[in-house]
Each structure stands twice: as structure tokens, then as C-alpha cells.
């Protein structure tokens, strides 16, 4: 059954999920941040069907998350490189990771830790802050209609 498209929704979250909302798409983007660039590398890492991987990569490229580029070795292969738009998803992946670390793992069960390359220290949890630096929670936020400004 085909999913309903959310690409015309007024909600930015809904539109974003229309582009990257399935788990395979986010795992492909995660793998790209881990250095994978070729179809075969994504396939080997994720183990999903080739037709599904092909569709997800095409959709991500169509939406400007990836761009297909020639392989640097001069072969006929192409690689998938994250665009600036794709690289901006890093904070989304870190937020998902930190949520999972907090709520889905028991103490000592986490094998992979996200650390600062320079210091070797674990990264701090992401926080939402106001323009003046105050820490914000859900009760501190509201949405406004931009046409009412």
C-alpha cells in the first residue's frame, strides 16, 4: 500500500518526515556520515534489498540530501555524497542517538560512544536555547502563524 504524501502539509515536521521519515533513509544518511559513499557499501552495511536501497538513494538525491558524483578513481561507478542540506541532518541524527542512549540502553550496554575527536570526551547532550541563552523546554515554546505578525 502506498503511503500518503505529506509534501503539502503546513507542518515542517510532517514535510521533513515525508523526505527522511523512514528508518532506511536515516540509516543511509548515518552511514554516509560514517564514510560510506558507494551503493555496495550501503548495501553491505545495511543488508536491505537492492531495490529498496536504490529507491531510497534516488529519493534522497531528488530532495537534495545526496548528490551522485563520479568515483574519484576514474571508474564508471558513481558515489553518493552528502550535500550541505544532507550534512545539516547531523544534528537530527545526534539528537536521535542521544535519545536512544538515554531511553533504550541500560548502563554499560552501549558499545559505541560519540566523542569529540579533539579531546576524546563524550559530547554533551543537545539542548534547545533561546536567543538570550535560556534553556527551553516544551512548555516554553509555541508556534505562531507567520501571517499574523
Overview features:
149 residues, mainly alpha, 40% helix
Task: Present the secondary structure layout.
Blueprint: H1 12-20, H2 23-33, H3 39-46, H4 50-62, E1 66-70, E2 78-82, H5 84-87, H6 90-103
Antiparallel strand pairs: 1-2
Task: Describe, in short, the structure shown.
With 149 residues, the protein is mainly α. The protein has helices at 12-20, 23-33, 39-46, 50-62, 84-87, 90-103; strands spanning 66-70, 78-82. It starts with 11 loop residues before the first helix and ends in a 46-residue tail after the last helix.
Q: What do you see in this structure?
A:
It is a single chain. The chain has about 150 residues and is mainly alpha-helical. It has 6 helices and 2 strands, in the order ααααββαα. The protein has helices at about 10-20, 25-35, 40-45, 50-60, 85, 90-105; strands at about 65-70, 80. It has a two-stranded antiparallel sheet with strand order 1-2.
- One letter per element, helices H and strands E, the order comes to HHHHEEHH
Which structural class do the helices and strands define?
A: mainly alpha
Major sheet description? 2 strands, antiparallel
The count of β-strands is: 2
Mean pLDDT: 92
| Number of DSSP helical runs | 6
Low-confidence stretches: none
Strand content: 5-15%
Strand order of the largest sheet: 1-2
The general outline is globular
Cα Rg: 18 Å
Quaternary state of the chains: single chain
Task: Calculate the terminal CA-CA distance, rounded to whole Å.
Answer: 41 Å
Helicity level: 25-40%
Amino acid at each position: 500500500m502506498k503511503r500518503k504524501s505529506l509534501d503539502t502539509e503546513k507542518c515542517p515536521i510532517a514535510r521533513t518526515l515525508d523526505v527522511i521519515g523512514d528508518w532506511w533513509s536515516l540509516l543511509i544518511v548515518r552511514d554516509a556520515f560514517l564514510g560510506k559513499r558507494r551503493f555496495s557499501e550501503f548495501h553491505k552495511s545495511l543488508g536491505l534489498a537492492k531495490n529498496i536501497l536504490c529507491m531510497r538513494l534516488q529519493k534522497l538525491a531528488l530532495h537534495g540530501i545526496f548528490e551522485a558524483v563520479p568515483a574519484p578513481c576514474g571508474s564508471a561507478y558513481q558515489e553518493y555524497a552528502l550535500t550541505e542540506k544532507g550534512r545539516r541532518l547531523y544534528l537530527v541524527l545526534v539528537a536521535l542517538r542521544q535519545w536512544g542512549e538515554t531511553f533504550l540502553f541500560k548502563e554499560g550496554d552501549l558499545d559505541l560512544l560519540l566523542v569529540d575527536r579533539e579531546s576524546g570526551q563524550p559530547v554533551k547532550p543537545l539542548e534547545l536555547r533561546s536567543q538570550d541563552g535560556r534553556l527551553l523546554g516544551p512548555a516554553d515554546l509555541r508556534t505562531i502563524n507567520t501571517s499574523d505578525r
